Amino acid sequence: MSLVDVLNVTKEYANGDETIRPLDGVSLSIHEGDYVSLMGASGSGKSTLLNLIAGIDQVASGEIVVAGTDITKLSRGKLADWRAAHIGYVFQTHNLIPVLTAYENVELPLLLLPMSAAERRKRVEIALEAVDLTPRASHYPRQMSGGQEQRVGIARAIVASPTIIVADEPTGSLDDETTEQILSLLSRVNDELGMTLLMVTHDADAGARARRQVRLERGRLMENGKETKATTLRTA
Amino acid sequence: MLGKRLLPWDYGVRNLFRRPTRSALTFGGLTIVVLLVLVVVGFIRGLEKSLTATGSPDVVLVYSLSSAADIENSSIPGRTAALLSASVDGIRRTHGVECTSPELYLGTRVATASLEQPGMGVVRGVTTSAPLVRDRVQLVEGSWPESGQVMVGRLAHSKLGASEKDLVVGQQVEFDGKTWTISGRFTAAGSAFESEIWAPLADLQTTLKRQDLSLVAAKMDSPDRVADVDIFCRERVDLELKAVAESAYYASLQKHYKPVRMLGWVVVALVAGSGVFAGLNTMYGAVAGRIRELATLQAIGYRRRAILLTLVQEATLLACAGALAACVIGLLLVDGLAVRFTMGAFMLRVDSVGIAVACGVAALLGVAGALPPAAKAMRLPVVEAIKAI
Ligand SMILES: Nc1ncnc2c1ncn2[C@@H]1O[C@H](COP(=O)(O)OP(=O)(O)OP(=O)(O)O)[C@@H](O)[C@H]1O
Ligand SMILES: [Mg+2]
């Protein structure tokens, strides 16, 4: 069974008289343990699709079913709760909270979930260990390099063991060496921790690191030269 | 459950130190605002207290019908006290002595050692029975005045505009062409008596070449008996007397000062209003630079309510710190500050009401200052805000 089903999703923006439709009836299934890279020209709608799956944007039509829940039907508040439990978001620029230490930034998503303080501490320590930043736990973002900040961002995304981790150009603002570090870290998250990943990138080499590569072209989603389909067809 | 979904308390606190200068300036501004509120409320409270503390419901004042409401203009025969004792039932007796106090009451220029110009003072000629009626008057230093002596209320110097050391026991004051030696000082539970100078009645009458009285104050067995005195005065039209409960007399004065109190509250509202703008300005600045961060928190799963709360927390913390500083300054510098006033002097009071109002204003500043900028930030869709720089 698939973990994420995007079913016939359309997204459009009114731009004066004309309508931009970056996603025009797109379908996609992501399975547990998948590592999917999403590529396409600038403005093709990659971020839009990723944000829809992450539950921070609304579809014009279609359904997005994640772990059995159609998130397009959730209210705003419920959607926030849902994100806390199911989504790990890695941003292009790390988006860490400047007044919180690395440890506290990583802990932030856990404060939304029911768990004991001891459990929380254990999880934060494991996540920081996974990104190799245990010695930096008490540092503030401004005391770290861009690559280190992005690793804290990844620790924050994986700490709650979300259903899926989405990353929007996670290496977009890093140099080559740091990019390599981050990409291999993401591969390890997929390989060793068995987490499901969806990564938007405009870098073909980066995209090639994923297990599956899909492309957005003129509102359609392509994989291996064919339009992607959802494997689960819901009869509702 | 609610607590679990809130942002850490530390987040709000540390955000205040993000722009230390801006926070410090706002803190200073809010402190001044709250201090101003404290001073105005202290003024209103002091005025109210001095007027309400003066009147007892079981004390009746008998003075002349023709004097309108102003006892200073009243003149009644010297035998009125004896007449009242003989004609009215219900006057209280303490240790066999009838609680009536014949008094002469006048405003006059009083010269002290260091005053260049004599100040306007209030002098009351009393007999030794006065404390039986005005039972809140308490000698705190020295002794009851003998012939040629006076005792002064603890705020009499403020009323005169003189320094406190001019009116210590042993000093001399001059009024109505006679020099008087201060024999004692008294308090009167914050009432208007505290700004008066009390002299022996007979002495004052001799000095002024008067034989009449301004009023007779009598303490009744109960507040109901005040009406009996009133009836007596109405029946004996020939005496041209009028009886009013002391509490009613000062309540009518208080009515007189209602516009002043209203004005005071208007000032409180205006000052608090200006404080809201200071808070708003800070919070708009604080939120504007943090659009992406607030969107990130939402993307992670924090509800908008939680983010709103942390912003309100931030602003309220700052305002409360300001309020705390203002209350400390207020208690140290403002409380007890004497204010001269037409009918006497009174003290500014930083009491529980003042502090409650100040804290209320501070809380209001925090909430009112944070909500509009927070609401503005929350209206932006997360996907757009997340791209903000
Ligand atoms: N809020 C908006 N209002 C109007 N049009 C928008 C809005 N957000 C996105 N678009 C349009 O939707 C299209 C897809 O945008 P999106 O950000 O998903 O592109 P992208 O593939 O992520 O591009 P890039 O590689 O440059 O990040 C673009 O043409 C963009 O102009
Ligand atoms: Mg994009």
Please tally the helical runs of chain A, counting DSSP H or I stretches of 4 or more residues.
7
> Which class of secondary structure composition applies to the elements of chain B?
alpha+beta
Major protein interface: A-B, 29 and 27 residues
Return residue spans of chain A where pLDDT drops below 50 for at least 5 consecutive residues.
none
Largest sheet of chain A: 7 strands, mixed
- Rg from Cα of chain A: 18 Å
Protein name (chain B): ABC transporter permease
Domain ABC3 transporter permease C-terminal (chain B): 266-381
Pfam families (chain B): FtsX, MacB_PCD
InterPro entries (chain B): ABC-4/HrtB_transporter, ABC3_permease_C, MacB_PCD
State the main characteristics.
heterodimer; A: 236 residues; alpha/beta; Rossmann fold; 7-stranded mixed β-sheet; 4-stranded antiparallel β-sheet; 7 helices; globular; B: 389 residues; alpha+beta; 10-stranded mixed β-sheet; 49% helix; 20% strand; binds adenosine-5'-triphosphate; binds magnesium ion; ABC_transpr_LolD-like (chain A); ABC transporter ATP-binding protein (chain A); ATP-binding (chain A); ABC_transporter-like_ATP-bd (chain A)
What is the strand and helix layout of this fold?
The complex is a heterodimer of chains A (236) and B (389).
Chain A: E1 2-15, E2 18-31, E3 35-40, H1 46-53, E4 61-66, E5 69-70, H2 76-86, E6 87-90, H3 102-107, H4 117-130, H5 146-158, E7 164-168, H6 176-191, E8 197-200, H7 204-208, E9 212-217, E10 220-223, E11 226-227
Parallel strand pairs in A: 3-8, 3-9, 6-7, 7-8
Antiparallel strand pairs in A: 1-2, 1-4, 4-5, 9-10, 10-11
Helix pairs in contact in A: 4-5, 5-6
Chain B: H1 9-15, H2 20-52, E1 59-64, H3 80-87, E2 93-94, E3 97-98, E4 100-110, E5 119-126, H4 130-133, E6 138-142, E7 149-153, H5 156-160, E8 172-175, E9 178-187, E10 196-200, H6 201-208, E11 215-219, H7 226-235, E12 241-245, H8 246-256, H9 258-288, H10 291-300, H11 304-334, E13 338-341, E14 344-347, H12 352-379, H13 382-385
Parallel strand pairs in B: 5-10, 7-9
Antiparallel strand pairs in B: 1-11, 1-12, 2-3, 4-5, 4-11, 6-9, 7-10, 8-9, 13-14
Helix pairs in contact in B: 1-11, 2-9, 2-11, 2-12, 9-12, 11-12
The structure holds adenosine-5'-triphosphate and magnesium ion.
Magnesium ion is lined by residues 46-47, 168 of chain A.
